[in-house]
Amino acid sequence: TQKRLDTFNKVLQNRTKYMTVLIEDVFQPHNASAVLRSCDCFGIHDVHIIENENQYLLNPEVDMGASKWLNLTRHNEKKNNTVDAINQLKQQGYRIVATTPHTNDVNLEEFDITKGKFALMFGGELRGLTDTALKHADEFMKIPMYGFTESFNISVSAAITFHHLRTKLQNSDINFELTKTEKDEIFLAWLKRTIKKSDFIVQNFLNK
Q: 177-207 as b/e, with b when 16 or more CB fall inside 10 Å?
């Protein structure tokens, strides 16, 4: 319908790949789903999922269909996929930013978004990011804490971080929007996911 086409175009104008997300071994479905929901809400299109010990399972009641509109890349072919996932993003020009208290970390408010596109790396619920992930990170960032508890839940940490950095991007002169080609590719992918027998329609078109 025209309404759906207009919605697709409106959302595409606010999608970005300047900021992406890398999640390592999250095992609780409600957390996994909440992070993806926040990614969609803040226009983050690419999400990389590392599955070393835990499969990344979704809770439909929390996800609310958000994963349908995202580009999910699962890294699960090896016993330990962390290094390969990080290297893949580095080859694409991303800075790997570990979200964890660290001796060389910066507060979220002080994080420099102007140094180039970045991948925010979040760890599992119990132990956080692994030593391997921390060893291969380029930068370290934390959310200031003022209570007794050492950290936020991962889904809360992600939402706070996405909101703050998305706001900074919106208020900056950085060209963080998708290219015309990226918009066309995503638009087609969304159409195929929402139209019945889309593969048949495409093939029929190509055969003409």
A: bbeeeebeebbeebeeeeeeeeeeeeeeeee
The 3-state secondary structure of 64-82, one letter per residue: CCHHHHCEEEEECCCCCCH
CA nearest to 99, candidates 33, 58, 145, 59: 145
The DSSP bridge pattern shows strands 19-24 and 95-99 to be unpaired
pLDDT attached to residue 64: 67
Residue 91's pLDDT is: 97
- Looking at residue 61, what is its pLDDT? 66
- Phi-psi label, residue 64: left if phi above 0, alpha if psi -120 to 50, beta otherwise: left
pTM, entire model: 0.90
Residue type, 12: L
pLDDT of 100 higher than 70: yes
For residues 163 and 147, give the distance between their C-alpha atoms in angstroms, rounded to a whole number: 21
Q: Does residue 37 have a pLDDT over 80?
A: yes
With tokens 């093939």, the residue in question is: 203
